[in-house]
Structure to design on (228 residues):
């Protein structure tokens, strides 16, 4: 199942998949990929649902998955749900960031474009929460405030690619990257791959993922220095 999820994330989230290759420990890398697969499942809900109500129903289904796995009982049969249950149990991950990833998406289902405040809230709930969880897997002592700002940057990059922000998204990214760069300096080398993708904000704006070679070089440079 781990190999299947790895293939899914490689196709759906190539930038973060590349960043995960810098995680030396194979098991931790697989757990990070499981988290990215969960994020992908939440992301694809809006694209696949024909209206906001159906999207909310599907996102609520994932909230019910969290109810099951944090209650310690059986989790419904779904490969990503089972993988998520494994990673939560293995690293005793908190529920709040996982739920925030769902709630942030529900909050904007009826919006065609986000203003600056909404974009920051979405980026914190989706990208910031994921960065915090990934950092905890790689280093249990990683403080949330060291990873969350870089997660915000990544979330804003995704919004820019999707064309979902009506305001000055480039300004938001630039300002957020300054904060994230300072915060990430306190991360251990082991935890740094959890936030490395924020360095892609330094590339010229793009409507899609960066070319693989450019992405790899930027990530190598960031991870080698431990600097976004």
């Amino acid at each position: 199942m781990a190999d299947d999820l790895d293939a899914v994330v490689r196709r759906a989230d190539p930038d973060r998949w590349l960043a995960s290759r810098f995680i030396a420990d194979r098991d931790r890398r697989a757990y990070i990929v499981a988290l990215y697969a969960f994020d992908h499942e939440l992301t694809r809900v809006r694209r696949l649902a024909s209206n906001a109500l159906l999207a909310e129903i599907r996102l609520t289904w994932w909230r019910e998955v969290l109810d099951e796995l944090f209650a310690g009982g059986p989790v419904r049969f779904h490969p990503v749900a089972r993988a998520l249950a494994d990673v939560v149990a293995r690293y005793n991950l908190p529920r709040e960031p996982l739920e925030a990833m769902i709630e942030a998406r529900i909050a904007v289902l009826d919006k065609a474009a986000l203003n600056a405040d909404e974009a920051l809230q979405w980026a914190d709930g989706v990208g910031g929460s994921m960065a915090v969880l990934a950092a905890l897997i790689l280093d249990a002592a990683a403080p949330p405030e060291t990873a969350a700002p870089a997660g915000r940057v990544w979330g804003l990059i995704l919004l820019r690619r999707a064309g979902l922000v009506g305001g000055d998204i480039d300004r938001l990214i630039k300002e957020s990257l300054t904060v994230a760069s300072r915060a990430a300096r306190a991360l251990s080398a082991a935890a740094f791959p959890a936030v490395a993708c924020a360095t892609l904000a330094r590339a010229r704006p793009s409507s899609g993922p960066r070319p693989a070679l450019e992405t790899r070089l930027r990530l190598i440079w960031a991870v080698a220095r431990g600097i976004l």
Q: What stands out?
A: The mean pLDDT is 92. Residues 43 and 141 are 29 Å apart (CA to CA). The two ends are 32 Å apart (CA to CA).
